[in-house]
Design a protein that fits this description.
8 helices; binds zinc ion
């Protein structure tokens, strides 16, 4: 009888073990590197402006589950996900990945939609709560492209980051809602023409202690280094217009992107942002890396202006895939 019991107990244990779920790290889609862009010819009469790299500052490693490799010169300490860590991490929505974390430890999420070799990066909410309609816009774009994947054109991968500055989002439309958990304006913290004296209108704002001092800026720059976008759009409100990044000797590489997007969306373009002095902005730094980049300033502060901006994103995709005359 004892032998019979032992056999039954072993059979039960084996069947229980077989029912245990296997924890498998979430697979991350591989984005092939975009085709390198033609370099702008340097003009010898122009003095090159200093372009700093995020590698000039120490980088705090982020959770590495979604990182495939770091930008050149940046050392990320690999963190091997354990079943315990995976179990503790909140589940990510479909197609989402972690870009990094904010100063206050909030996750910055990105969405990757499409499998093409040319990456179009779309970033909302760098000024967070003060410009929350840009968060709404990028969330609506994510929703649209998830429902209508055929609108991601062949050859394109969209990477969408709806909330670049999650710390400022919950503060709402107050001045502090523009800044991260360290009180820094994240669109004054990049490495082209960074200045310790930075402005928003006539107000002094904190640009950080040095270029890329903030974890959000470093995370976004690392994402740029990783996926090497063919073009990038940062959404703001509400100066009404498309403003090209410019950090190249003799003029940047971003003018055509501004024209394509501005024409399609019906926003003015072609003039530099001149309302007040700005320094250390994201599109300028990307432009300095040879990546066409613009700020889109929505017209108002409430509506997401989804329809004109969907038209803009579609036109940029056609331009990137050669289906739109870039010469206009
Ligand atoms: Zn803004």
């Amino acid at each position: 009888m004892q032998t019979w019991y032992a056999v039954v107990i072993v059979m039960i244990l084996v069947s229980v073990a077989a029912c245990q779920p296997t924890i498998v790290p979430t697979a991350t889609a591989t984005v092939p590197p975009a085709t390198p862009l033609a370099q702008a010819s340097p003009r010898p009469t122009q003095t090159p402006r200093p372009i700093l790299q995020p590698t000039d500052t120490p980088l705090i490693p982020t959770i590495g589950a979604n990182r495939r490799f770091a930008p050149t010169g940046v050392t990320l300490i690999p963190i091997i996900p354990t079943p315990v860590l995976l179990a503790a991490a909140p589940a990510l929505p479909p197609q989402a990945f972690r870009v990094g974390q904010s100063a206050a430890g909030r996750d910055i999420l990105g969405w990757r939609i499409g499998t093409g070799e040319r990456v179009l990066l779309l970033v909302g909410g760098i000024h967070a709560g003060y410009e929350a309609n840009t968060v709404m816009l990028v969330r609506e774009l994510i929703d649209h492209f998830q429902r209508a994947p055929a609108d991601v054109l062949p050859g394109i991968t969209l990477i969408l980051v709806p909330v670049a500055n999650p710390d400022g989002l919950e503060r709402g439309r107050v001045a502090e809602g523009r800044f991260n958990g360290n009180g820094v304006d994240l669109n004054r913290n990049w490495g082209c023409e960074w200045s310790a004296e930075a402005y928003w209108k006539s107000n002094r704002v904190n640009p950080g202690s040095q270029p890329f001092s903030e974890p959000e800026t470093r995370a976004l720059a690392a994402l740029v280094g990783e996926v090497r976008p063919a073009a990038a759009v940062f959404y703001h409100s509400a100066a009404h217009g498309v403003f090209a990044g410019d950090c190249q000797p003799g003029g940047g590489v971003s003018g055509t992107l501004a024209a394509v997007l501005g024409e399609a969306a019906g926003y003015p373009y072609g003039e530099p942002f001149s309302a007040y002095q700005v320094s250390g902005t994201a599109p300028n730094w990307l432009d300095g890396q040879g990546i066409p980049a613009v700020d889109v300033e929505l017209t108002g502060t409430r509506d997401s202006e989804f329809i004109p901006n969907l038209r803009g994103v579609m036109a940029v995709q056609r331009w990137l895939t050669g289906g739109l005359d870039a010469g206009r």
